[in-house]
Amino acid sequence: MLQLEGSLDLPEADAYRDDQSDTRFYILPKVPTIRQSAGKLAFQYVKYRTLKPLANGDVGAALVFMDIALALSKQQEDDIRTRLVAAVKARRGPNDSRPLGPEHIEFAKIPITKAAVSVEILADSGNLVQKVNHAGTPSAYGSNVVAVSAELNQLGAPIFEAAMQGGGLGGVRVVYDLTFSARIPPITGTGTWHASKFYSFFQQVNYEERFWDEDDMSESISEMFRNAECRNIVIDPGSLPNTDPNVAKVLDTVRASLERQLDEAVKRNLLDVIPPESRDVSKIREQDFENIKRSVTVNKQSDVTIRFRENQVTSVDTHPQANMPSIVSQGFAWKDYAIDADTDDPFFRQLNLTIQVNADFETLPIFSVDVSIDYPPHTARHGVQTFSFRNADDIHKFTAFIENGSTEFQYSYVVNYKGESRTFQSTPKAHKGNDLKINVDDLGLWLLDIEVGDMNFEQVSRAVLSVSHPEVAPGVPPLSRFQIDKEHTHFALKELLLEPARPFDAEIKYFMSDGREYVRQLPGQKGQRFYVDDPFSATKVVQLRTRGDFERRIDTIFVDLAYDDERNGYKQTTSIALSKDKRFSDWNFPVIDERAGKLAYRAITTFKGGESTDSGDVPFSGTTLLLGEESATLTVKLIPDLIDWDKVKLARVELHYTDGADVDERESFTFRKGSPEARWELALRDKTKKRYEWKAEFFNVDGSKTGAASPEPVADEDLIIEMPA
């Protein structure tokens, strides 16, 4: 049986000797760890996020599952066996010939009689941990396993994750409360407790009744309380030396056990409080007694004695506790036990479709719109669902689990009109997503609000607007005309088409106050609102851009531009000069119809040599006019990085280009130590001729000069300058 004498306090555990075998030890580990099975930890960390906020407002959290054990690793057991061999040999003495090695050391389980455990994660902070669950008691056999689960909030999850991946403690604190049976060594112990409560009460009352005078009453009371309590614990070590630290530890353990048992016995034998005696004698006076004497005495005593003697078996309390090491500190990889979970599981995804009809039911001749939703295979089980709309504020919801990851469905609708037996049945239409809006243009009506916009009725006496929708049946809808003047500026058109509205054509004829007439064509109009603006509200823009060598060849380009709208008898002209300082320009002018009218130009180009060219009148279309000569550019980058500036003070490079006819250009570049790269750009008349010559002259530190040149024309765009060998 486990005996307290001779126990060893090791770094990893307490080792208690057996009273029968000197090679059997009862091992109590000091540091809780995560239970292992087949080389794997009984641990799982699941971090998850949600599409919808949780009850606490977070969108994510984590769950922790682990089995905590009070156990040693295989390496720790081997180390302890080796140290226990040395302890047993020392106890046996040098003359003991019995074989002894680590294999002869036997480990036995602590005989636990009562056990409890508490687990704290991340300091039990309500800001980090939502809940910690465990039974409160370990298994009380084997490794005293306690199964723990915890829920961390969005803030606590990354903190716990970081702690478990660190090289130290893992943020989990475990406290065991264990009681086990043990045989005490050759010592004795006695614990006594004595309590007494004494109460004494004496009362004397005398009444004097007189016929000839006033009555008298005298009362004498004596009351006494006395409480006494004493406690005493005596431990006799017997033959054990007091100076031995191990003996002191045993004595402390015996004393703690004796105190605990004495405390438990005292709780069971506590004396009740003695209540004071009542002083009321009215009941006695009712029996016509005149002289009353009352005497009460109460005496209570209680004694408790607890004795320990040699070889007696007693209960010992111990409290192994520690902050559990992190996953990494226990020799495992965090990634093998951590899972990131996304709660957006495809199996639970839903199509949450919101359906609306964007139409004013009160002012339009629409009685109702019935929308049908077909989403297979949901439809195969539940049928096509139809929703009826009679108000612009009506909103309906269609909900179904998403199949095969697709939100594509088909819808159709029937429009019922006020005072009309005919209905409009749409064709089935495909749609994706969680929102479906059916607009008024799709409801079989042609609706148009006509308003006068920017119109100067001082210049325009009146206007006639003609609008025509493509026919859906012979004569349906008819051509509509509206007379517009200062007094009539707003019109509304409502036509029943029984099919969705399409783009329409409009024509505005303006009658000017001076007798002129202008016509503006506006095909392919869309929407439900149409503005009639001033005849000159449209603007035409012509962009003039140039090309060519304005540095050396071209001097000025003179451009005459003309715009002619023959139908309306409307013309515009302008002249613009383009040069080196003005390479582009824009011509903006008002027009009656931006789709009508013709453009023409005449360009006269003068050159720096005095000659000129004339293009004549040239028609053109579009918005951009490109003028000048087509040219190419020769660009050469001069790189002085290979010049040895320890030998050279100055370098000069000359480039020469000629195309054999009109162009003959030279340019020199000077380089000193620290000079950056240089660039030579030249506009070419002939883009196929890009070869040039170069020569370099080096002024050396010693006063001499060195030269170099290209043996023949080159086309290098990067010219690397270096001294000749």
Characterise the protein shown here.
The chain is mostly beta strands and 725 residues long. The chain is built from 5 helices and 49 strands. The chain has 6 domains: 2-184 and 326-339, no CATH class; 188-310, no CATH class; 346-442, Immunoglobulin-like; 445-532, Immunoglobulins (Immunoglobulin-like, Sandwich), CATH 2.60.40; 538-628, Sandwich (Immunoglobulin-like), CATH 2.60.40; 632-720, Immunoglobulin-like (Sandwich). The strands form 13 sheets. Strands 4, 7, 8, 11, 12 and 19 form a 6-stranded mixed sheet that branches.
Task: Write a compact overview of the structure shown.
Helices cover 9% and strands 51% of the residues.
Task: Reconstruct the topology from this structure.
Layout (H helix, E strand, L loop, with lengths): L1 E8 L3 E6 L5 E6 L3 E2 L1 E2 L2 E2 L1 E7 L10 E10 L4 H19 L13 E3 L3 E10 L7 E5 L12 E7 L3 H10 L3 E15 L4 E21 L7 E21 L8 H25 L12 H4 L5 E18 L4 E6 L2 E5 L12 E5 L7 E9 L7 E9 L3 H5 L2 E5 L6 E6 L7 E9 L5 E3 L3 E3 L3 E5 L5 E8 L7 E9 L11 E5 L5 E7 L7 E9 L4 E9 L3 E4 L5 E10 L6 E12 L4 E10 L4 E8 L6 E10 L4 E3 L3 E3 L3 E5 L3 E8 L8 E11 L5 E8 L6 E7 L8 E8 L4 E5 L8 E3 L5
Parallel strand pairs: 3-9, 7-19, 20-27, 28-34, 35-42, 43-49
Antiparallel strand pairs: 1-2, 2-3, 4-8, 5-6, 7-8, 8-12, 10-13, 11-12, 13-17, 13-18, 14-15, 14-16, 20-23, 21-22, 21-24, 24-25, 24-26, 28-31, 29-30, 29-32, 32-33, 35-38, 36-37, 36-39, 39-40, 39-41, 43-46, 44-45, 44-47, 47-48
